[in-house]
Amino acid sequence: MTGVETFRALHRRKAPGDPLVLPGPWDAASARVCVEAGFPALATPSAAVAASLGYEDGHTPAKEMFAAVARIVRAVDVPVSADIEGGYGIAPGELVERLLETGAVGCNLEDSEGGVLKDPRAHADWLAEVRHAAADRLFVNARIDTFIRAPGDTDPKQATEQAIERAAVYVAAGADCVYPIGAPVDVLPLLRSGIQGPVNVHGTVAGDPSPTALGELGATRITFGPGLQRETARALHGLAAALR
């Protein structure tokens, strides 16, 4: 079984309370720690990788992001999915080839740019081009930003409906999984009932709600964004302060 086949198989939940939990390493050392802890696959978070390279979130040059992903992939023997933000303006065919060169088996692609939601149909067309170029070589996770990019007065119900609508066109375009980032816990059952296929949910490093609870509410897989890296940075700050 290839790496991408193994990764796809991990998304087939044995039970509602048994989601795939993917920690987010930001470099080779943190990736090895995650694997040693027993995780069967990893998902790099762009914000954490950016921080490790000295950039603000969203400002990492594509060349450096791909290089960082490649170092993580080389360091471990489990499947790695890479957060490559909005694709860096790279044409779908080239984007896929550059990602495959890193050894990653999947990618996370977001549907907003500059803090503004993209037109869902246009984004779906772009995802379809990515899917066509990748064929079955990559697992495509389509991030849906309606909860984090909508105006502050947007009703959560409206954001949920928009997320379900976007999910439908993204899945039709070939997305293997959708990620309504920032979705409130209480709307997860509605999202689950309205979305076909795997659903990625953002978890907390503190484990509240627990992965089991999120799985029972509808999560197929759980990722943590830069949470692990930021908790590590806070712990390091405390240690450094104690040494002064």
Automatic annotation (TrEMBL):
InterPro entries: ICL/PEPM (IPR039556), Pyrv/PenolPyrv_kinase-like_dom (IPR015813), Pyrv_kinase-like_dom_sf (IPR040442). GO terms for molecular function: lyase activity. CDD domains: ICL_PEPM. Keywords: Lyase. Transmembrane segments: none annotated. Pfam families: PEP_mutase. SUPFAM superfamilies: Phosphoenolpyruvate/pyruvate domain (SSF51621). PANTHER family: CARBOXYPHOSPHONOENOLPYRUVATE PHOSPHONOMUTASE-LIKE PROTEIN (AFU_ORTHOLOGUE AFUA_5G07230), PHOSPHOENOLPYRUVATE CARBOXYLASE. This is Isocitrate lyase/phosphoenolpyruvate mutase family protein. It comes from Streptomyces coerulescens.
